[in-house]
Fold this sequence. Notes:
- Helices cover 43% and strands 8% of the residues.
- By secondary structure, the protein is α/β, with parallel strands linked by helices.
- The N and C termini lie far apart (91 Å).
Amino acid sequence: xxxxxxxxxxxxxxxxxxxxxxxxxxxxxxxxxxxxxxxxxxxxxxxxxxxxxxxxxxxxxxxxxxxxxxxxxxxxxxxxxxxxxxxxxxxxxxxxxxxxxxxxxxxxxxxxxxxxxxxxxxxxxxxxxxxxxxxxxxxxxxxxxxxxxxxxxxxxxxxxxxxxxxxxxxxxxxxxxxxxxxxxxxxxxxxxxxxxxxxxxxxxxxxxxxxxxxxxxxxxxxxxxxxxxxxxxxxxxxxxxxxxxxxxxxxxxxxxxxxxxxxxxxxxxxxxxxxxxxxxxxxxxxxxxxxxxxxxxxxxxxxxxxxxxxxxxxxxxxxxxxxxxxxxxxxxxxxxxxxxxxxxxxxxxxxxxxxxxxxxxxxxxxxxxxxxxxxxxxxxxxxxxxxxxxxxxxxxxxxxxxxxxxxxxxxxxxxxxxxxxxxxxxxxxxxxxxxxxxxxxxxxxxxxxxxxxxxxxxxxxxxxx
Length: 465
């Protein structure tokens, strides 16, 4: 009897081991794997993007969108230049057609500051809006994100949500109002991301707010809006797309980023390169390689301008979740410490280094430096941008990509390095000092860097050709 019982138990155990283990059929719940133990580095990533709508003339639908949201008091944000141009007119026509009640704020500053953010926040708090529309480039969309955030959290101090170490970097837990972004440049990808960047004047450095909670509800990508962009704005916006793609693809992998958050609400928006962001970054890079020069050189090339508008969103999806690293980290003091430089085609009353230009000027030096880590990705990027890598050695990946970038920039008449926009070797200590607080992005570099490394990178970027 005992032998029979042992045999029966043995058969049952064999059946249990052979049972289907998929959740739909298995009732052996003890077979579900345990959650991984939280260690020093992260083990997961997540994708967060805005809803995207694309099409020529699709801006005409915005009035219906606001009706569908039940919006009764809308804030329309733009800048003074755009307020007279077709993109804003298209939005105004749609709002009028569908009887949407709105107030316009057109005092957005190109390359916003903490004070220009505060001015917009004051307007938003006073208006008690139930929806927002941002029509413009990254400056307008980022300003609108900040206005929406602080109007929804009226008792918060400004630095509460600003990235550490400059601000407190608190997580956003308040519900925000719907925000519809209508990008008019093909660069920042701000319509897809939860990031808002500004110049912090006290420290003369760029910083920002980064939270999935502030990303737009909807991004309306209407390629007709890019047709009115002047040549240099197309170029500098495109350089931002280029660096978003390159930096997110070469960033530290998400599972090497530390620390691992104890709660998913603390997982940063910029998480490191990951398999999904990689797809978007490479796709954006291929579009840049094929269409950016055409979009710059021929304003009537509707195909090229439309493709770059999409590439901006694609790169935004990539870097909005993977992050950027040294080109962007170093760009913030380049913009923040600007002296007298005023770029062509920008109708502004203040000195300005356009964001895309400030980013791309260091790119040859940066990628020569980072290619020691993951050199195969650097070579792949160089090949996409036109380099012949058939005889290239893996140890030369950085130099190959750097030379490819220099040729690309030279062909597009880009200023010859930081010296051409007013900087000298004497400015390097201040530029390094302004980079050090940008740990949110610089720590995503695949290769760690010292202050001496940053000094060398700035020095190498003084002259490109």
